[in-house]
Prior knowledge:
Blueprint lengths: L1 E9 L5 H17 L3 E17 L2 E13 L4 H10 L3 E8 L3
Antiparallel strand pairs: 1-3, 1-4, 2-3
Amino acid sequence: MRNYQMVFIIHPDFDEDQANEVIDNVKGLISRNDGTVAKVEPWGLRRLAYPIQKQHEGRYVLMELELEPEKVSEIERLLNLMEPIIRQLIVRLEV
Length: 95
């Protein structure tokens, strides 16, 4: 298993409770793909550098996780299918 860091942006129309539900769904998605979540850091509502889907703000979330390398593309595919998430990025951490 390798260490990864993932940042995703939740649509700004989702309030704090709804954003927590999205975070729980993402954690479940990772655990169903044999991964583990080491840390979750919600950064809150922030201004985007450029508009995404006509939105100027979004709820940022940082996650550190352990995952098999072949599962990363599946996680990315499933995150792209989730409507509340407007952008995501997964990068491998050097240990």
